[in-house]
Amino acid sequence: DQQVKQNSPSLSVQEGRISILNCDYTNSMFDYFLWYKKYPAEGPTFLISISSIKDKNEDGRFTVFLNKSAKHLSLHIVPSQPGDSAVYFCAASANFGNEKLTFGTGTRLTIIP
Amino acid sequence: GAGVSQTPSNKVTEKGKYVELRCDPISGHTALYWYRQSLGQGPEFLIYFQGTGAADDSGLPNDRFFAVRPEGSVSTLKIQRTERGDSAVYLCASSSLRGGRRHEQFFGPGTRLTVL
Asked: In B90-109, which positions are buried (b, 16+ CB within 10 angstroms) versus exposed (e)?
């Protein structure tokens, strides 16, 4: 049972445009959500997070939106840059104190110069 | 170093052999996690340490897998009688639990295990 789903395996976006990556979850106990970026042969790098008490969190070019009723979150990157090309993972956790992460399968983002 | 480090970066072994994978977390991080990432998948949780104790080992696939963190810092993931299906990238992450708020996990570069 895939509790965190990223239904788009890949996405291509022109440089300078907005990239929107989507994520859906099924477990109502999830209350903390994170996005990680991964380059080949490296570990995932934390990008941005959001608590379930919020519906938006912004950090520079990155904004995460959370729709609890729809169990959906999205990551917006604007403007997109070539260095943003990577695999993006959505992750969620349910318990403060044991924050084991449940990950989606990832979306490969390619920024076209 | 400033980040999480893992050794070796690559490990090739034969089916049935024993392997140990090491993780050095960020200094001062009390929480340590092991994940396994197979090709085309996201990382999957294996085990969580709070200090020296394994607080949650529900992700370990079977009793061939074991992990320790004897002094609350470095952790070793041990796999006995390796099988070809154990081939994956093993990721370690650490986080702080201070301040009464949620914290992100910082990941190491992983160990790529190949079982022939």
From this structure: bbbbbbebeeeebbbbbbbb
